[in-house]
Write a structure and sequence with these properties.
The chain has 171 residues and is mainly α. It contains nine helices and no strands. The protein has helices at 2-8, 18-27, 33-46, 50-62, 71-76, 80-96, 108-117, 123-143, 149-160. The longest helix has 21 residues, at 123-143. The radius of gyration is 15 Å and the shape is globular. 36% of the residues are buried.
Length: 171
Amino acid sequence: MQDFARLAAAFQYPTPDRLAELEQAAAGMESGSTKRQFRAFVAELEGLSLAEWEELHTRSLDLSPLFVPYVGWVTWGENYQRGEFMAEMKAALEFQGVPMNGELPDHLDPVLRYLAVADPPLPSLVEVFPAAVATMTKKLKETDNSSPYLYLLKAIGSAAESLKTPVGGAR
């Protein structure tokens, strides 16, 4: 579950030290698809200047984002179900002591950090998270098929596989 926290770090705004933090995060991951995809994301960032990375981050996630990094919005749009989900997520984040860092409670950053510490995580989140990430990935492929953030979303999608309950009910 710690891989979720490592993935969340990639949503923080780029700083001169952030790339080294992400490299360390990648090195600490368990082997597998999540690690491979996250390493590919970090490798893409290594080829960018800090200014280029800042622009990519802003273009991808902030101003008219290329994909919407909000689990509830991707799942339900702007309606009462998202509101209920965000209220539930906010309470769960507070209970686990996960700060939102200025984001809404359904943003990938706090959601991933929550998934790293919650045992078990909210069933409503587990139910929608893999499909929401798949939708985000599809949208980014449509808007910018060469974005390094595709690797990040694929890494998150791979990690989300661990949330699925196997046949028989036990995780």
